[in-house]
Amino acid sequence: MRIVPHILGAAIAAAVLIGTPVSAAELTGTLKKINDSGTITLGHRDSSIPFSYIADASGKPVGYSHDIQLAIVEAIKKDLNKPDLNVKYNLVTSQTRIPLVQNGTVDVECGSTTNNAERAQQVDFSVGIFEIGTRLLSKKDSEYKDFDNLKGKNVVTTAGTTSERIIKAMNADKQMGMNVISAKDHGESFQMLESGRAVAFMMDDALLAGEMAKAKKPTDWAVTGTPQSYEIYGCMVRKDDPAFKKAVDDAIVGLYKSGEINKIYDKWFTQPIPPKGLNLMFPMSDELKALIANPTDKPAPDKKA
Amino acid sequence: MNYNWDWSVFFKSTGVGSETYLDWYISGLGWTIGISIVAWIIALILGSVLGVMRTVPNRIVSTIATVYVETFRNVPLLVQLFIWYFLVPDLLPDNLQEWYKQDLNPTTSAFLSVVVCLGLFTAARVCEQVRTGIQALPRGQESAARAMGFKLPQIYWNVLLPQAYRIIIPPLTSEFLNVFKNSSVASLIGLMELLAQTKQTAEFSANLFEAFTLATLIYFTLNMSLMLFMRLIEKKVAVPGLISVGGK
Fold it and tell me: Which residues of chain A does B203 touch, with a Cβ-Cβ cutoff of 8 Å?
């Protein structure tokens, strides 16, 4: 019976030899993993409209960040000379996205993840793909147009976001006596606003536009207020894997240089988007234009308005 | 795995006022205990009444209790919470609704929804424990009490319930612990109890594993001490010769 392990060993050795092109000897980390397995796993969100969300029954994501992610896949196909690279999707939430990138389940996550110092301890960020300001959503005809009007009022934000931290800190520093409600996701935050439990919803302006578009009567609402911070979204990759990060960065910068990014932007922010055919009517901000002109993988500078 | 461990994270500043992450856990633990105790009181009282109702010799009364149990036991807890939190306030009259949603502190309204939801949900389970406790007693107990001229309320109060409660302390303990664990659903309607604070710490610090490890330890320690405490009570109230205690 000793013969079986020998055959098995030979088969494995043969498989390894055949399956590995000579050039792959230089590959390391994630690129090697993708090359060897023939599969790249993309992390996506399910309700970050219009960045990465699921719009139909197929379960496949769509969105601005997702289009960028697909461009990354195309570039990697070219780099590895693997036109039939298999693409696997893996849904992540705000709680699971970092561990799933770290433990190798997900190779690259593009959604609405802010690049900040705490997260950069755990993962590496690509060059920025979007820049938002944290602002308010409130009734168009209400008096809650800016943060100063919110003293003693109920304000909702989504749990685990940078907006939550900013508004709680503002409440403590300026002793505004606001009641800050932390809802579990953007959809629920908006429900709190729409049902009258809160007078304003603080969040990333682009996401607010997305939520507004979902409202029963989108024209009743307005994104308003002075931005309290600017934040850069990035795609997350595993730490200390410079070759893969460079491949991802190059793919994104390629979109910026070719002007392709403008097409992707228009598709998601100034034209009707699935599933309901709503138009966010959210023109490109000066901050994002500057980011595209000078791509960076650093967090947004701490400039308060 | 490419993870950056940092156990000192709990002593770091959260960036909100002068609080550390540990302060968040402490305040979260306070809410968890508060929710659980209040919900447990509701569950114990209502559950006992319903448990008695299920065993009385009256068809209508026992049917009401049965319908209650089946309803509350067969609808997921989270669905019930969303009903109490989102739907029920919308059924209030307009001016009351306005007050509940706008003037009442949102933490208070979330707290009310959670304790009512958890209390009524657990009451259905306590009811079943009480019922089995009563039914486990020999029939002779009730007959003897009747023969001595006790009225129905007296039979329950003086003869059946004191014995039934002693029998069901172990399963009741387990329900009591369940209340503490189930109280974590409050994190989904924005009440900053232990799990909500854990998730917030995980998000803010990006030290997810440390955050959840600490929460696990806290829940475990809390439930272990409650279990030991209940075992103590069980020994204390045991009537020698009535039922065996603690497996002896």
Answer: 94-95, 159-161
